Amino acid sequence: MNQIYFSFKNYLYIVVTVCISIIICNGSVEAEMNNVCNVRVFGATGTGEVLDTDAIQSAVDQCAKEGGVVFLPAGTYLSGTIFLQSNITLHIAEGATLLGSTDPSDYPDTIASIPSYNDDFFVQSLIYGEKLQNITITGRGTIDGQGEAFVVTTREHPERYRNRPFIIRIVNSKNILVENVTMRNSAAWMQHYFGCEDLVIRGITVFNHANQNNDMINIDGCRNVVITEVLGDTDDDGITLKSTSGLITENVTISNSVISSHVNAIKMGTETHGGFRNITISNVVIKPSSVEETIYGVHKGTGGISLMIVDGGILDGVTISNVLIDGPLVPLYIRLGDRARKYRPGMDRPPVGQVRNINISNVVATNIGDYGASITGIPGHYVENVSLNNIRIYYAGGGTHEDAERDVPEMEDSYPEGTKFGQLPAYGLYIRHAIGISLNNVEFSYEKTDERPALVADNVENLNVYGFRAKGESNLDGIVRLHNVRDGYLFSSRSLKPVKSFANISGRDTRQINIFELPAGLYQNTFSATDDVMRNEIIIK
Whole-model pTM above 0.70? Predict the structure, then answer.
């Protein structure tokens, strides 16, 4: 009896599924009765030669009366701005393309109700929604913005950003799902989610190499966000968290994705007014772009992971794990700066923000450039509590003795970029103005001869290094260099081949440097120190 019952259930399920599929595909009267609004019924041609904007919008408006599905069957639908409404699904079927018009006048200016830095110029979109709830964009079809048609003719700000529509911009909305669609060729940012809650982006494919500012995904002042199973290749930044207003971006998970970018693959910034809190990133592959020609950046990417606060705001509670990085110039860049850009006229200058409580683990980075990674604050304002665990980074090498001895400018108010400092004094990791930095089971190596130390710490308090391993040249005076470090602990660490000394220690503010359990035979001297260092502040066991 049970067997018959389950067989009947399966039969009923198949019949219902087939009927629903027929209704959607046919766009019949029954479809309208079930509130599946096929855009063809509303006059869309699907030829790609005439504007279907009005027909698609009519389907959206009709469907929104009771909630339902706006269906784009196979075909090419040329369109200007589509204004979404609550309680609808925009379903782009396999074989269907929503094709953005190349006429800027088909995209009316729409300024978001939340004041932000972008109000003067990023005001056009192919798909727009504001103050909505229960929105879905799905299907196996394609959204193509034809972004290469929007030629930039000036370098002036803000004119160079105008008349270049986003593909998707959703503002101040709740319960949003974007799933399975393919997005291509935006004229600017591909997606901008601003001030939204309960957002899921899943299983999408993005290719964005059509114009300047071709970011892949921008999450801006949103909370409760899941991004997963993304395949993306973009000219500008990849998966980017922003804060262009006073709203904080928080409670975000990014996972199980493959990202290529000519600039930064994963980024928090550049705008950081509210900041970022409670962010997890896991199981991500960062690899070179399939496109060698660049608009911004370089073919293999400028940065792998870039975390910053430069316009006030906080960056607090970030966990990153299980990441493979291949190719960029800089694998890791953590920056607290003081650019202090205002997001609306007349507001007070933003104060210096905070960067703290970052845990990065299980990272392998290969084919990395020769700049080095960095964790830097500014005088009087420290990056706090950063842990690096189980990290392997393999650099190009090639640094010189002059690079090792150079003074790194503070550049407190500069645009933040991992290459901004130039060749760092450390080929592996440069740390300055920081408190509570831990390195556990970290290894740095390089391909070409490099005369720089692997690790440099300058004005750092509470530095803990355990199981550190790094390659160095035989004449290197200090594979680790500590300048004005207070409470430094170096345990069970070693160079990967003999060097002149393990640690070079300098600075009259140096206090309590503890070096324990170094292997014998790899160094002529355990450490060297300048005359301004009090010897009783160095403890060897």
Answer: yes
